[in-house]
Amino acid sequence: MPQLTWLVTGCTSGLGKQFIHSILARGDKAIATARGDISRLDVLAKAGAKVYSLDVTASPTDINAIVGTIVEENGQIDIVVPNAGYIEAGISEEVSYEQYLSQFAVNFFGVVKTTQAILPHFRAQKAGTIVFMGSVGGIAGDPGAGPYCSTKHALEGWYECLKIETAPFGIRSIIFELGHFRTKVFNPEHIQIRSSAIEDYTPLRTMVEGFIRGVDGNQPGDPKQAVEVILDVIRGEGAAEGKAFPDRLPLGGDCLVAMRKKAVSNLTVCNEWEDVIRSTDIAK
Ligand SMILES: NC(=O)c1ccc[n+]([C@@H]2O[C@H](COP(=O)([O-])OP(=O)(O)OC[C@H]3O[C@@H](n4cnc5c(N)ncnc54)[C@H](OP(=O)(O)O)[C@@H]3O)[C@@H](O)[C@H]2O)c1
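ok -> structure tokens follow
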């Protein structure tokens, strides 16, 4: 396998940071980005990564310019991982419009803008792989996760369309749907919980806050193992050896349970309601 060059966003912690370490360990080239002061990426630079400042909420013009500089200075980029993201938690009715916008600005439009910035280069080189970081929250909903789940469901839809549109240019896309992995995503410094309080929801809100405190640091998923599997799939080696490149891959036993439950539920509705579902077609 030739040496590949990866561009990853959101590399100060968690999966992004792990991506860079694992990419370098496989002998590939890694370009790490983070918003703000890139001295936060010193450890990755010392490990051999090229580092750049990239806030995924910046304007498309600014993101295009940064990605353009990255391509100019590093040559061909083979894989992009628009990884940056966070959880905006809150009861769906209590979360303000502005908070929904903040959540979409990072988790959805940040991904859209980063991907759009790299696509001209991928189309020109007639090759490239886009690795989307989906979530169990893009498969099913949970109380208190309305903003986050909305962005990850939106990502699923965008991915489905983009995959078909860009395939003729030799561009591969894949979405990994992760269950709960032990990163800083639920850490009080990363997760945002700032909804207003509607009295009726107090018991549910208390339950959600308890869940968030309880899950932080106790997630069942190993981030290093998730990234190693993702690298195997993209490079077609290790765990992916001899397997076809999938459209999507859930990671983590919790995500497997959620995906199966959703698939069975959808199939049950299709089977049990088939005559009713078909009854709305205009008769030929
Ligand atoms: N861990 C899980 O269980 C899990 C499950 C499913 C999906 N995911 C997805 O995996 C991705 C990485 O999450 P993680 O678990 O590694 O969480 P994490 O440890 O909290 O890392 C999130 C990263 O995103 C960055 N980020 C946030 N806002 C940004 C912005 N505006 N511009 C640039 N970077 C920004 C953070 O940088 P700062 O230090 O600047 O905040 C940080 O580097 C996310 O898309 C998340 O939704 C994670």
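The longest helix spans residues 146-166.
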